[in-house]
Specification:
By secondary structure, the chain is α/β, with parallel strands linked by helices. The protein has a single domain (about 5-285), classed as Rossmann fold. It has 12 helices and 7 strands. A hairpin with a 5-residue loop joins β3 and β4 (about 105). The chain starts with a strand and ends with a helix. It binds adenosine-5'-triphosphate and magnesium ion. The site of adenosine-5'-triphosphate has 18 residues, from α1 and α11.
Length: about 290
């Protein structure tokens, strides 16, 4: 295949479902036959690793060797020197495998100070393109079909690096006035970044999440999102599903969840059609 497609979940707001979205879209892509790598940049709490039940094991690994390279290390200006020491496949040391086919580079306590460290880099271009450099040079050769990032729910130097590197933004939105505003603000912000740096970062997928279609209010917001984002809106909304919450607490996605409820099955199907839509968008746009 040759081309690695990247996308990042982002909205300048907590709790709308970024982590859930990245976990589920990752598995959906993998079920569609793609090789998938997920990268957690969303903060040291390790939510994405928890979502796949691998956080405790990773914590043990961190405790056993504090100097082991991690996702924060790749932003370091000495990364290329470190990578050289690590040998022929330095990224292999960062990746852990999950039970659901997707590979994962988990979050790390080092992410805590990363925003401030990046803030000390004077040149904006350099400050925001560290992740891009790492991915271009070290991850693209691994020939994953899809690399998805989970970003912090706020605008900072780390999320900028994610947007920069991904170029495709996935915004999970809940059905409310605040999310509608946040999505609008995101579009404005992306336009500003694109203008300032000559980039083409697009809001590629607006994914309505936690939708309770029994309420007319949800329907009204859904219609509004469809009208505002006619091409980016996901074909099917992700329903509010207790199983999504339960599965996450058990360290899995609803794709691996035994005995799924009706809403869980709807969620699976919706994530699959969303992954399919993203795949189509990826093929339409080749970012160089
Ligand atoms: N469709 C859904 N149905 C039910 N619960 C959901 C759904 N999507 C997400 N959740 C739950 O909502 C909570 C927030 O979701 P998630 O952690 O994915 O959001 P987030 O945007 O990553 O949050 P943060 O900004 O804190 O990182 C979690 O408990 C998750 O299990
Ligand atoms: Mg999260």
């Amino acid at each position: 295949m040759g081309t690695t497609h990247r996308a990042a979940a982002f909205l300048d707001k907590g709790g709308t479902g970024k982590t859930t979205t990245i976990a589920h879209l990752g598995v959906a892509f993998s079920e569609l036959g793609a090789d998938v790598l997920l990268i957690d940049l969303a903060g040291k709490q390790g939510d994405l690793a928890k979502h796949f039940g691998v956080w405790d094991t990773y914590q043990e690994q961190i405790a056993a060797d504090e100097a082991w390279p991690n996702i924060a290390t790749v932003f370091d200006d000495s990364w290329s020197t470190i990578a050289e020491k690590l040998g022929s496949d330095p990224v292999a040391d960062l990746i852990i495998e999950t039970d659901e086919e997707v590979d994962l580079i988990p979050a790390h306590p080092g992410l805590d100070t990363l925003d401030a460290t990046l803030g000390n880099i004077d040149d904006a271009q350099t400050r925001y393109s560290r992740l891009t450099q790492f991915l271009d040079e070290y991850v693209d050769p691994l020939e994953y079909d899809v690399v998805l990032f989970d970003l912090p729910g706020l605008t900072n130097n780390v999320s900028y690096n994610g947007l920069w590197a991904a170029r495709h933004v996935i915004a999970p939105v809940e059905m409310g006035p605040f999310e509608a505003k946040q999505a609008e603000a995101l579009t404005t912000d992306l336009a500003k970044i694109n203008n300032q740096f000559g980039l083409n970062i697009t809001l590629t997928l607006v994914l309505p999440n936690k939708v309770d279609t029994r309420t007319t209010l949800a329907d009204e917001y859904l219609a509004e999102f469809e009208a505002t984002y006619p091409t980016a809106i996901a074909p099917t909304a992700i329903p509010q599903s207790q199983d999504i919450r339960n599965a996450a607490q058990q360290g899995q996605t609803v794709f691996a969840y035994g005995n799924p409820s009706k809403t869980a099955e709807q969620a699976r199907a919706a994530y699959t059609t969303a992954a399919d839509a993203l795949w189509t968008h990826f093929k339409e746009t080749t970012h160089v």
